[in-house]
Design brief:
This protein is mostly helical. It has one domain. Helices cover 70% and strands 1% of the residues. Strands 1-2 form a two-stranded antiparallel sheet. Strand 1 and strand 2 form a beta hairpin. Helix 2 runs antiparallel to helix 3 and helix 11 runs antiparallel to helix 12. The longest helix has 32 residues. It is globular.
Amino acid sequence: MRHVRRLVALYRIQLTMDFIWVVRDFRNFVSYYLCEIVLGAASVATTLLLAERFGGIGGWSRDQVLFMLGYAATASGVLETIFAFNVRFISRVIGRGQVDHWLVQPLRLPVAILAQGFAPFTGSAQTLPGLVLLVWAVPRAGVAVTPGWLALFAVNMAASTLIWMSYSFVWGSLAFWAPRAAEEVSSSAGRAVAQLQVFPLDGVPGPLVAGLVTSVPAGLIAWYPSRALLGLDPSPMAAFGTPLAALAAVTVAWWIFTRGLSHYARVGSSRYLSLGFRR
């Protein structure tokens, strides 16, 4: 509980700093939100236009596709809210020799990582449009919103975010051994997931689906949890498959990351760049 109270206190500080950054002047406020909304809309526009043109994709109706796109946009916004400032691109922090910033703080490492990435106001530029899409799509897709459904939605949304971060940490840990070469590997891995998460995978060949829920877990970010939330697959495995996958992904990612930390403790970093680190 002591660490939780410390994290909450640090979240209050981060919230204040993030608010000041967003509203430091009117031009910055308008331009930031406008650009983020345009980028968010562009990321789902291709799938949305295809669904509109053909009345759906892969057996999904247009409104079901709209729900999945809203879920994907919301997951991206939650990720940007909790894991901002290069925490979501962990290879940058490792490759630039910035892990020492965390290690010298009188905090447990998970608390330091979580505290640094909290940015509720900058993250809301992606979260709010996603929530608007969800609110618009839910009644049109015939979803019955109940307390149980909302709980399932929250659990799957948290799981989707953790899977995305675990994937980043697995690849980003390579920077412990190759800091210069792997500095941007997390951003490349995240880009692959972001580009593939907006497509329904029904009708896709089985081996390809298997790859898109394991090696590149884009299917677990929005497609698979949306199947359960929309009632397309009422089985318990569909409802809890994403949370179970998140548990496995976090375990693997933390094991690899701690192995990298052990290597870092022995050899240190061969370079240091202050670029992109919020102090």
